[in-house]
# Entry
Amino acid sequence: MRNILIYKYIDVTARAGSVRKAAEILSITPSSLNRRIQSLELELDTPLFERHAKGVRLNPAGEHAVHVFRRHIAEIAELKSRIEDLKGARRGTVSIVCSQSLLPTFLPKQIQAYRDEFPGVEFRVHMADGEAAEHALITYDADLAIIYSPLAMENFETIATIRQPVFAIMSASHKLTKKKKLRLSDCIDYPLALPKIPYAVRNLLDLEAKRLNTTLRPIVETESYIFLRNYVASSNAIGFEIEVGLSQDVIDGTAVRPLDLRVNDGGLLHLAQLRGRSLPVGAAKFAEQIATSFASDT
Amino acid sequence: MRNILIYKYIDVTARAGSVRKAAEILSITPSSLNRRIQSLELELDTPLFERHAKGVRLNPAGEHAVHVFRRHIAEIAELKSRIEDLKGARRGTVSIVCSQSLLPTFLPKQIQAYRDEFPGVEFRVHMADGEAAEHALITYDADLAIIYSPLAMENFETIATIRQPVFAIMSASHKLTKKKKLRLSDCIDYPLALPKIPYAVRNLLDLEAKRLNTTLRPIVETESYIFLRNYVASSNAIGFEIEVGLSQDVIDGTAVRPLDLRVNDGGLLHLAQLRGRSLPVGAAKFAEQIATSFASDT
DNA sequence: TCGATCTGCTGCTAAAAAGGACCCAGCCTA
DNA sequence: TAGGCTGGGTCCTTTTTAGCAGCAGATCGA
# Structure
């Protein structure tokens, strides 16, 4: 749609913070981009950007404008998607932001299953925490967010929710593997490999530790679950992960045991979209699939 | 905004049902219009219209498309309105559909009051029944609807409501003027001048008549309250009108008396907008004014 | 049945808009 | 003060759009 190209120009310029950078991203010359922006400002009878020597920044009018423009871009994409759907061939791109835990197992399987049925649909998957996910939804960079976090921001609209118990991960030869079910007090005497502080699993564990009047002293702190898992495989340390992050196939050399948390029997994994937005067909149908997957796992 | 001109082209063509007629309305040549449509269809990779020898009609894809296009047109107008508001000068056009009763007194005063404060805002006022009003909101032909009717369609979003008692209108010399408050049974022996059947006041009266195990036999049926009022002024017939339709200044030769209806002490007058739509600043502020006016009259 | 009259559509030409290349002046930083 | 940014201006080419005249086909009425 050539007619909404100008929206994209404004959007990219706003993100880039500079006409020249934006022009490079858009593969046009800065002068051309600048003139397009100026002509739009002329039509709206107001500047949209504050011009500084170090770049441009949106003014209040521009903030309003890009907000509308981004929504319109997304809605035209959605329109195209619906039209494709009418023609029988479901096409389009589904863009997802999600927590790290979803990446190794859950999302690949879900996407594989979806694409078995609709091979015309492509996927973009990005990792993000709750805040970044919210931002991605607001700027229409993402259609769906799957976030494991207690945040319930007002911009989110939850499509589905599933309770996620926490599991302890350890080497297959670990003493604690003898127990079928663990408590945090069982683990606390062993070296702990924990996710870094902002992560939700860490929050849950810290809360539980507080209940036990103790503090967790991790020997390893990481933001990578992969690293964490590989680390515990070759040591006597204990790591933690939520259910959805675990492979069904047991990883060589590791064992998992459910962890009994008194504070909370697992946080909630949310499938969410931007409040009030109507999604492209592909994204909506994929969301449905995930929702039913959540429901059947309950 | 030149870039959304194509939306208007599609919209007008869809309404006109013919490329040539639409081209005439738009003051361009049919060939140009036709080519614009074709190029858009090429971009969307689907026809939007069914071509017949007697004109064009939207196909399903086209229906989806115009729906989006109309919304986008309205939202760009709203954006402009907000930008104007940011600049301090409130400008723009507020388009209203309303019941007939609002036209003689209520709306003119409200608009006058609003324009005293914001002379840059213009108004378009159209009369419509509930169904036509709903259609006008859906097609973004109107921003606000003020409808006296029991309909609560799912596309409406009620902003404010006020109860409207029914009044009887008669000549100033009428016998019934001796009573301060009337019942329908008081009127039933006199010739009746009633609004036509689909109108809400008529519905209320018919309901009340049913309660009294009788049927109303109007000697005059009209859709014009003006005619009705002038008719009763020079006869001994009795007419009916809701409160908001009455001038505060007594019309020469007529008197009004409140009518006590047992079925319902007056229907509801609704101020409504399209569900989920965010209005232009002018329309939103005018709606606020009407809402407070409703509230203070309760 | 046969025009008259609609319809959408298509070459063609002219005008207008958008894009590209280049240069300039102003501002900030080092 | 010099160098590297910035946005903005100018000239030119390319692309897009509008207008004109005319096409074939469908519809309707005499």
